[in-house]
Specification:
The protein is an alpha+beta fold and 139 residues long. The chain folds into 2 domains: 1-72; 81-139, no CATH class. 42% of the residues lie in helices and 21% in strands. The chain is built from 4 helices and 3 strands, in the order E-E-E-H-H-H-H. The protein has a 3-stranded antiparallel sheet, covered by helices on one side. The longest helix is centred in the middle third of the chain and has 24 residues, at 57-80. The N and C termini lie far apart (50 Å).
Amino acid sequence: MEIRQIWTSTALNDYVNFPHCEQVFQIERTGRKLDGTPSRHEIVYGITNLKPEQASPSTLLEIVRGHWEIENRLHHVRDVTFDEDRSQIRKGSGPHVMASLRNLAINLFRLAGATNVAAATRTCGNKVRISLRLIGLSL
């Protein structure tokens, strides 16, 4: 279980040396185990170009939380399933091309309804017809 609290302010806008600063915020996250004992405590600070009229404190919390959804849905899958961190492709546009191909594969699996990208990768590796069907081709 996690409790999140946010404090926002525009009072520092003139003092913060950051372009387009409209709000600063502090988020405090406190994690608790099911028995109620604290497991984690974290404080993070942020700056946004969104004015208070555009982004209330609750909206800012949603935006920050949404960032982690992207991290968990895409980057975690690329790191764990495709072992991207140990890739030895490092020169020229190779790393960018491989990241794009990994993203394409993940998105094709999700569009096809796969909930487990690792299992879908194994299935497509074993069955060429399924792989071709994902990109609109058939034998």
